[in-house]
Amino acid sequence: xxxxxxxxxxxxxxxxxxxxxxxxxxxxxxxxxxxxxxxxxxxxxxxxxxxxxxxxxxxxxxxxxxxxxxxxxxxxxxxxxxxxxxxxxxxxxxxxxxxxxxxxxxxxxxxxxxxxxxxxxxxxxxxxxxxxxxxxxxxxxxxxxxxxxxxxxxxxxxxxxxxxxxxxxxxxxxxxxxxxxxxxxxxxxxxxxxxxxxxxxxxxxxxxxxxxxxxxxxxxxxxxxxxxxxxxxxxxxxxxxxxxxxxxxxxxxxxxx
Length: 257
Hints:
There is one protein chain. By secondary structure, the protein is an alpha/beta fold. It folds into two domains: 8-167, Molybdenum Cofactor Biosythetic Enzyme, Chain A (3-Layer(aba) Sandwich); 175-256, Alpha-Beta Plaits (2-Layer Sandwich). It has helices at 15-18, 26-34, 51-64, 82-90, 98-111, 117-120, 154-161, 186-199, 228-244, and strands spanning 8-13, 41-47, 67-71, 94-96, 124-126, 130-132, 141-144, 147-150, 175-182, 204-213, 216-225, 250-256. The strands form three sheets. Strands 2-1-3-8-7-6 form a six-stranded mixed β-sheet, with helices on both faces. Strands 10-11-9-12 form a four-stranded antiparallel β-sheet. A hairpin with a 2-residue loop joins strand 10 (204-213) and strand 11 (216-225). Helix 8 runs antiparallel to helix 9 (228-244). The longest helix is centred in the last third of the chain and has 17 residues, at 228-244.
């Protein structure tokens, strides 16, 4: 019996991402964290700081994938509306979480900083959600159903992920083999690679050219599969394909990819 794949999606929230003002690295962090757990990220969306857009994206993604990770929009400012949007997406209320409110109050008191009404917004959690620890700055994320709501700051996302892994069902780990060939061009092998991709069942093939200079260019061919035997066969076939094109190759076994 084939096991149902465990999959994930990421929803990045923030006008600053869409404007290009801020460069995202959270997708890389989340995907890299999930890959060894056998949970591939299958889709990424970027939405503005507009509640209707967030609700629409979250509802679409949570029905299509095992898990959804949102980043951004849970801070103290007026445009931090993610918590409200998640509550709306699930049709639940939202309010100050007593434990979070108390912890943040103590944190700001210790720093000698006023716990303003704006900062109190970070204690607002959708009803029924479970907290995600934030070891960096204190204000937690939260889990609602299969949706994990994280901060937008990469260092905080990294910290929050440590309280997420134990909640996830793990899938089959996808591993990879890379065949690199210097001087090879994609056009030299395009038809043969397409035919091989059709022939190999249970293996995904990708072609990734590099070009650093006229004397330093080539193609990296990557095979991915959860089946180690099929992956080994794919690597051998790729090496043979490159050889038939008159080029030498280097085979590298990869980790989860």
